[in-house]
Specification:
By secondary structure, the chain is mostly beta strands. Helices cover 7% and strands 33% of the residues. The protein has one domain: Ubiquitin-like (UB roll) (Roll). Bound molecules: FE2/S2 (inorganic) cluster.
């Protein structure tokens, strides 16, 4: 179990939640009542994009497929991404 802190685009805390390793981020965030815009849920549209503020090395960007286009170092599509097991708190920032 890894902890993910979700912030809004202003850097304000939305929620800090436990995330299971091996399952995609988006559906797990939704199960914690965190709303992330989404459309294709397949790494094609970037609607679910978040910025990785801290601990990008613990984020698996292609857990369930490859992004349709190259991502920046700090960008992640939450619909296809997962996390590694870590004691660090991964910080993601939404685009809204
Ligand atoms: S919902 Fe389209 S890329 Fe994630």
């Amino acid at each position: 179990m890894t902890t993910v802190r979700i912030e809004n685009s202003e850097g304000e805390l939305i929620k800090e939640v436990p995330i299971d390793v091996g399952r995609v981020l988006l559906s797990q965030l939704e199960s914690h009542d965190i709303e992330i815009p989404n459309a294709c849920r397949a790494g094609m549209c970037a609607a679910c994009m978040c910025n990785i503020v801290q601990w990008s090395e613990h984020v698996i960007k292609n857990l369930r497929g490859e992004p349709a286009f190259p991502l920046g170092e700090d960008e992640v599509m939450t619909c296809i991404a997962g996390v590694k097991e870590t004691d660090e708190t991964i910080v993601l920032r939404t685009m809204y």
